[in-house]
UniProtKB/TrEMBL annotation:
<dbReference type="InterPro" id="IPR052753">
    <property type="entry name" value="Rbr2/Nigerythrin"/>
</dbReference>
<dbReference type="Pfam" id="PF02915">
    <property type="entry name" value="Rubrerythrin"/>
</dbReference>
<dbReference type="InterPro" id="IPR009040">
    <property type="entry name" value="Ferritin-like_diiron"/>
</dbReference>
<dbReference type="InterPro" id="IPR003251">
    <property type="entry name" value="Rr_diiron-bd_dom"/>
</dbReference>
<feature type="domain" description="Ferritin-like diiron">
    <location>
        <begin position="34"/>
        <end position="177"/>
    </location>
</feature>
<feature type="signal peptide">
    <location>
        <begin position="1"/>
        <end position="34"/>
    </location>
</feature>
<protein>
    <submittedName>
        <fullName>Rubrerythrin</fullName>
    </submittedName>
</protein>
<dbReference type="InterPro" id="IPR012347">
    <property type="entry name" value="Ferritin-like"/>
</dbReference>
<keyword id="KW-0732">Signal</keyword>
<dbReference type="InterPro" id="IPR009078">
    <property type="entry name" value="Ferritin-like_SF"/>
</dbReference>
Length: 218
């Protein structure tokens, strides 16, 4: 192949790459080879770090609640911890499908008394519900990254329920009504949706059959 032929081949490859990229963007698909430069990928990495940390933190909070004689509050923390593990797994899967790096996470948090731990959990869930996930969903929508939209929405819808559960648990603790808290939770293994008591036949977020829920009970 002479120099002129090589130049022609190189030009054809560039034109093909440009046409392919234009076609991909026209379909609303985020190209894997551009994933590392998108805001959505950064959001996924932050979300993976946050959910991995929450998974470990809530497990530690559950242990503390048991030590302080609050098995039903411990059960709530265990259920939420299991849900956060699902969310972290979904974010990780999205990152891998986009060809992006998955962060190494070394969770850092403080474990205090159960009342303080509940307040910490409420604060964290409130931030995710009011700020973090709404912003992440907006970024993923703008960049048309459907797998991230799905993963973010699963977590967002679940965290709204966790916030309410933690608020109810704190009220029960303050009013000496912990004994009336649920003694069974079910967690959807696809989206992390968390039910206090028996869940429905299908998940209210992702329609997964109840058979794929994990049950935690005393």
């Amino acid at each position: 192949m002479n120099k002129e032929q090589k130049q022609t081949l190189t030009m054809m490859k560039k034109e093909f790459s440009s046409l392919l990229l234009a076609f991909v963007l026209m379909l609303g698909i985020s190209p894997v080879f551009a994933a590392g430069s998108t805001q959505t990928v950064k959001d996924l990495q932050d979300a993976f770090t946050g959910e991995s940390t929450a998974h470990a933190k809530y497990a530690a909070f559950a242990k503390k609640a048991k030590e302080e004689g609050y098995p039903k509050i411990a059960l709530l923390f265990e259920a939420a911890s299991r849900a956060e593990k699902v969310h972290a797994g979904n974010h990780q899967a999205a990152l891998k499908q986009l060809g992006a790096e998955v962060p190494n996470v070394n969770p850092e948090f403080d474990v205090k008394g159960t009342r303080e731990n509940l307040k910490n959990a409420i604060e964290g869930e409130s931030y995710e519900v009011a700020t973090m996930y709404p912003n992440f969903l907006k970024d993923a929508s703008n960049e048309k990254v459907n797998i991230a939209l799905m993963s973010f929405n699963y977590a967002f819808q679940t965290e709204k329920k966790h916030k309410e559960m933690y608020e109810n648990a704190l009220a029960s603790l303050d009013n000496n009504q912990v004994k009336d808290m649920p003694s069974l939770y079910q967690v959807c293994l696809v989206c992390g949706n968390t039910y206090a008591g028996e869940g429905p036949a299908r998940c209210g977020i992702c329609m997964t059959p109840n058979e794929r829920f994990v049950t935690l009970k005393l």
